[in-house]
Amino acid sequence: MDRVKQIAAHFAPKGLAALERKSPDDVVITFAMRSPLCKAGKGGFKDARTDELMLEMFKHTVAHSEVDPALIGDICVGTVLTPDANYHARGAALAAGIPESVPIQTINRFCSSGLMAVTAIANQIRTGQIEIGLAIGVESMSENPDKGGPSQSELIAANQPSKDCIQRMGWTSENVASDFDVSRQDQDAYAALSFQRAEAAEKAGYFEREIIPFTVFRKDPTTGERTRVTITKDDGIRYGTTAESLGKIRAAFPQWGKGATTGGNASQITDGAASVLLMTRRKAESLGLKIISKYVSTAVTGVSPRIMGVGPVYAVRMVLQQTGLTKEDVDLFEINEAFASQCLYTVRELALPIDKVNVNGGAIAFGHPLGCTGARQIATGLNELERRKGKVLVTGMCIGTGMGAAAVFVRE
């Protein structure tokens, strides 16, 4: 009987009308929020440990989600650079008051890790393994700086695509710019738009509905004493940024390609966390919870490692095909701005209306904490979708070593 249901589901009607239909078995989101995003090494979270960011995210989720944490069937934490991640995640969950009976796992698919955490939990719910699950994305790039790829065995490095997997991400940005003729001027103009949109959104108070103030330790540089401080806003948004001002910044990688990637038109190195609580519609309704959105599907695909930034092009196409949607059905796109080169190429190649893409800015303006971003995009996108009374959100990102991921969400 289960096999019959699977076959029927495969041939079920697709498209927006079908996705808007409600079923007790739908996987829905009842909570999606994030921390402020802070500049690594010098921002608000520079002295906060990874497990402390996890602890704050867990505590706030328990406090604000209106769900007894004992009901959570599983937790999945997306994080990229964190050594011994499962130790940190399990310890932080217990310290936050989540019962010992609630299991936890960690997942790492580089820049999509937050989305992969959401996807893993959604799939567990969809297959009936659990009714409620929690997905967290977190990264402290202050505590764990990105040191690039590891060394390779000569047996692996003899294969050129394999060797390309461990190259610096700036190299891949320059390859995209060169291969697809994305100019420095266009990259700076796009980056300026990201900053300007983020500035406007912050001043209008749009982020206040998605940001949870985080209380963390701050270390006195003279005495080493740690005191608690509360961070309420992103600290990477640079007011007054223009394409002209960005044009004065020197190339970050002049040795590669066009030397068009700079510290001004690439994502900021950042600390942050985000949380998404998922469950069946049946369970949400029985608990009397407000449903924010229905999770629909995720697509992941591989691309050439040397131009890893093109991944969203293929992943977005794939997830739209899976769900029977057209780009015209989509109200908002959140495409991670790893680099202006690859994000702008994605917008052009997919012919996306720029007024639907990263409408409140993106990672260039407020940062890309690697494991956090996939979950952060959901919190940001659903918040703006609600404000605009839109219906469909698509999130997407490129992934180091040559992959792309994208997901579809439908607002209630």
From TrEMBL:
The protein in question is named Thiolase, N-terminal domain-containing protein
Its recorded reaction(s) are: an acyl-CoA + acetyl-CoA = a 3-oxoacyl-CoA + CoA
Query: What are the recorded Gene Ontology BP terms?
Result: fatty acid beta-oxidation; phenylacetate catabolic process
GO cellular component terms, A-Z: peroxisome
Its annotated pathway reads: Lipid metabolism; fatty acid metabolism
What is the similarity comment for this entry?
Answer: Belongs to the thiolase-like superfamily. Thiolase family.
Which GO MF terms are attached to this record?
acetyl-CoA C-acyltransferase activity
Domain Thiolase C-terminal positions: 290-410
What UniProt keywords are attached to this protein's entry? Acyltransferase, Transferase
Q: Where is the active site?
A: C111 (acyl-thioester intermediate), H368 (proton acceptor), C398 (proton acceptor)
Specify the species: Roridomyces roridus
Q: Which residues form a coiled coil?
A: none
Q: Where is the Thiolase N-terminal domain?
A: 27-281
